[in-house]
Amino acid sequence: MNEGVGVAYRPEFESYLTELSSWVDAFEIISENYLNDIESEELDILLKLKPLLAHSVSLSIGSTTLPKDKKLDKFNKLIKKCNLDSISDHLSFSEIEDIQINNFINLPFTEEMLDIVCQNIQYVQNKTEKKFLFENIVYFLSWPQNDYSEIEFISKLVKKADCGILLDISNLYINSENNKYCPYNFIDHLPKDFVGYYHVSGFDKEGDILVDSHDKNVDPEVWKLVEYSLRKTSGNVLIIERDNNSTNKEELHSEISIAKDIWNKTKNYKVMSKL
Ligand SMILES: [Fe+2]
């Protein structure tokens, strides 16, 4: 996998795609946009421009049924075409008995759920022969039957399933603010060598609650947490997520510049700390 800063590709970037490509090291695509259209012209264009990472929204690794072979066959075609090192999806369930819920429901952090998610991830990894990375999601309720905290559950899961983490640093910040805990402490306890890559995005405020709207510039407090996370963990690409037709070229360029400055600063730190 390449190293550096990238953006999650959205169709609204198409009008300045070549210019955007010159600012970044990679694009992240949404797998499901191409699973039924592997010959997509858009995918071919993106592939010619930059290395791709693929993020998914439909594997539902918290469901009690295994991901479908038919879907995984399509993933394998995408992996081959895009030369992917890994695939990723959310630490959630989003499907019940073939009905897709258009939302990511956070999981109960129980021993039973640990076994279910582990089994699903191992099944995906066996079928695709690629590392699976799960993304920490924003949650607005905690299940009363939890056996573990989120960080305990994540730490156990990566080791048990031998998978990786897509660390969404903004989601971590939002959860820490909404649930009153220290995000830096969370990073300190994360299995640092299991982080594959990172997401960062802007958030919105609804009353006292932060929500992952992806439609604003990244908050300065989140950039501070990005810098800390990059110093402490192993991920090799930082992807900026910007959705909802909310950006213009100049704003996105500015966000990429901030991300690159932090990336270069922490990269030098990592090299020096190994000397
Ligand atoms: Fe994300």
Automatic annotation (TrEMBL):
It holds the Pfam family MbnB_TglH_ChrH. NCBIfam families: PRK05409.1. This is Uncharacterized protein (UPF0276 family). The lineage of its organism: Bacteria, Bacillati, Bacillota, Bacilli, Bacillales.
